[in-house]
Amino acid sequence: MSGHIPMLLKQQEFYRSLTALSPGLVERVGRTIEDAERRFSGKKDGRGGFLWEHTVLVAAQSFRLAKAEKENPDLAALTALFHDSGKFSGGRYHADDKPEEEAAARLARETLEETGLKMADIGHVVRALRSLYRSGSSRSRLADIVHDADFLSKFGYLGVANFFVKSTLRGRNLESAAMDYLSKELTYAAVLPANMRTAAARRFAARKSADTLRFYRAYLAELKEAHGMDFRIRTLEVPRPGGRARRARVSLVLPVSCGSCGGKWGADFRTEKGLKCEKLEATLRCGACGEKRTISFCLPEIA
User: Fold this and answer.
1) Which of 262, 267, 271 is nearest to 297 (CA)?
2) Which has the closest alpha carbon to 57: 131, 140, 159, 141?
3) Where residue 39 sits, what CATH number does that domain have?
4) Is 303 within the bounds of a domain?
5) Nearest to 153 by CA among 32, 9, 52
6) In this predicted model, what pLDDT tens digit does every residue of 7-19 receive, in sequence order?
7) Into how many domains does the chain fold?
8) Of the candidates 153, 182, 210, which is a domain's last residue?
């Protein structure tokens, strides 16, 4: 595991608690996640990856939320440590189009059984991972806490910073980050408090939602002033898939005119049931030159 992460870890309450429970466990999970991300990305410099840094944030937030909700903070932090561990399973991203939580649950069971942790506690963690993004009554309290911590980590000023870190890692420039990906950030930020499953998380979410929306609106205004990139935020309701009388409110970041020819963009929308979520796909097409762009993301659970 990279050198700077342990120093950050030692300052975290969850790290001290889990280390007392099972010395070296956190570092072992960290090495597993970083190795899988490194195999996927082809990095050979040994520097820490984005995914592990995100995992540490979610584990720390899960520990705090669990204490506030009077749940077991160690089990919440353990669930958080493994929540993204299946993302690069086998060195591939979402291997075989299977939910990554299944791979995470298998890894958690294999790892935790070697620590001497109680089998009942291991079962709680494994079941929470398998139900993490499953809607309905089968969810667990641990899953709810980690779900909320995961979303909270992606918003507020630190969440904004991480959005741009990911954009850079994936080779996006300012235009593609705004046009292709900012719609999802604004959509989720607008409904963040309603997307929380715990009372403790809702208290954090209201402030993070306001901070995030304020920043991105100012960012779009400055993009126009500095680079001539003129975007508008269009808020609309789209039907959820399946013909049910439910609709989702989305905020789409749309260019005022085509960057290639200056023509006007038209937009078509459709929703469909994906592997783990209900997805929106917006197809943008310039009426003058025919240039086409697609925006696609999972709809929030609550809109």
Assistant:
1) 271
2) 159
3) 1.10.3210.10
4) no
5) 52
6) 667 778 999 999 9
7) 2
8) 153
Q: Of 63, 79, 48, 51, which Cα lies nearest the Cα of 15?
A: 63
Full-model pTM: 0.87
CA distances 165 to 49, 84, 158, 178, Å, are: 11, 18, 10, 14
Q: Which of 91-100, 173-182, 210-219 has the highest mean pLDDT?
A: 210-219
Task: Please say whether the beta carbons of 112 and 122 come within 8 A.
Answer: yes
CA 196/CA 301 separation, integer angstroms: 9
Angle of helix 199-227 relative to helix 156-169, nearest 10 degrees, comes to: 60
Which pLDDT band holds residue 303 (cuts at 50, 70, 90)?
A: very low
The structure tokens listed for 226 are 């500095």
Phi-psi region of 262 (alpha: psi -120 to 50; beta: other; left: phi over 0): left
Task: For residue 299, give Cα distances in angstroms to 117, 159, 186.
Answer: 37, 19, 12
Say what percent of the chain tops pLDDT 70: 86
Same domain, 15 and 133: yes
Cα pseudo-dihedral 34, 205, 163, 93, rounded to 10: 40
Does one domain contain both 9 and 114? yes
* Same domain assignment for residues 34 and 113: yes
Q: What are phi and psi of 23, to 5 degrees?
A: -55, 135
State whether 138 and 214 are in the same domain.
no
